[in-house]
Amino acid sequence: MSDLSDVNEFNRGVIEQFRESGGNPGPPFEGAPLLILHSTGAKSGKVRLAPIVYRKVGDSWAVFASKAGAPNNPDWFHNLVANPKASIEVGADTIDVVARVLGDEEREPIWTEQKQVMPGFAEYEQKTDRQIPVVLLERA
If both were cysteines, with which of 20, 64, 106, 122 could 102 make a disulfide (CB 3.0 to 4.6 Å apart)? Predict the structure, then answer.
């Protein structure tokens, strides 16, 4: 398991609870599909951890660079663009993945379904002028 020393306090608590429960997140993510992304920092080269809500797409996982509607993409998105090889913790499993940012045609049905299932994502979209990227994490 990766070191949590560089993770902010909120995310550290989410990750610790996720791991202690075998992948069942507690509040505020209780009931939501959550994974822990292990990406390589675009600038630092260090392993970075981020808890992220996902949507299962076939044998892959779609993640959404919403950053709660902030004007810029989250750090983990920049890390995956720079270094697409990553790993994820899903439940009690750790899986090697390769990240791929989806183009509009592939992105649209996944994004539309995500907004329907979890309306908070529609709210994030309304809060920002940027298109929220959808990244597909495919088994390596």
Answer: 106
